[in-house]
Amino acid sequence: MKKLLVLSGVSLLTLAACNTEDAQDVESILTSSIEAMEEVESYAADMEMTQTMGMGDGESLTMTSTGEMIMSNNPLALEQRMEMDMGEMNMGEGPMAYTAYFSEEEGFFMEEPTLGGWIKLPESEMDAILQMEQMSPQEQLRPLQSYISELSLETTDDEYIITLSGEDIDMNAFMQEFQGLGVEGMDEMMEVMEEIDVSSLNYVIHIDKETNYQTEAQIDMVMSMDMMGQSFDSEQSIHMLFRDFNEVGPVEIPQEVIDNAQDLEDMMDAEMDFEMDEDMEIEMEEDVDVEEDTEE
């Protein structure tokens, strides 16, 4: 990843078409960035995602998410703060905000946004969570190495801007590149992708010339999907800024979170027992009503 630089004034951009020489330049830049980011011990990231889905009746639903993340290695740990605005689906409650923590040593803890308190996910989910968190930014660059001839390169005084864009990109093949990175659930995602038609993709990354860190990523997609016999159109935009390399962390989970978190499995078991007790009470009341009717 690379240090974010705020550019002021007007920069002269040089657009390079990916002929043989330029393709070698792009490949070299990607390789250098991957190697540089593998040495990063900690970083922070800001994310914003917007998704607009056409509902098929002329109406649309827009959902937005914003968040901040701090990640540190050795051991791997994460702190994430998110806010989600689901528009009309908020049911008048406003945006939903929550905080989450993860560490290899303590596990995964998530704030319960509606009732308050903290939830700890079961150990059976730890391997899946660990695999997802190990999907580091440098690993996200590797699939681009298979599309060197499709990439365009822009340069400024301070950074490289690499773009993968087009309407003819085989999205199943592109997502397949991520399958070998140890991402839990990728098989299920691939099955979903088979039902999705991606009509447009624009994937832009910014790499700092001095540090070779990736500082920014922008992904824009237009797609359509069939679900339960209905067709939905969707536009999705994801913007990420990476910053504070080797200047944050190590991430530590507050002790009060660890001490007060409720185990998710215990909560589910308690809820199931409560529902069973309610069902038994209803059955007993119905039996009493039947007996009274019989006596009459």
From TrEMBL:
Source domain of life is Bacteria
| InterPro entries registered for this protein in UniProt | DUF6612
Question: What protein name does the entry list?
Answer: LppX_LprAFG lipoprotein
User: Which species expresses this protein natively?
Assistant: Paenalkalicoccus suaedae
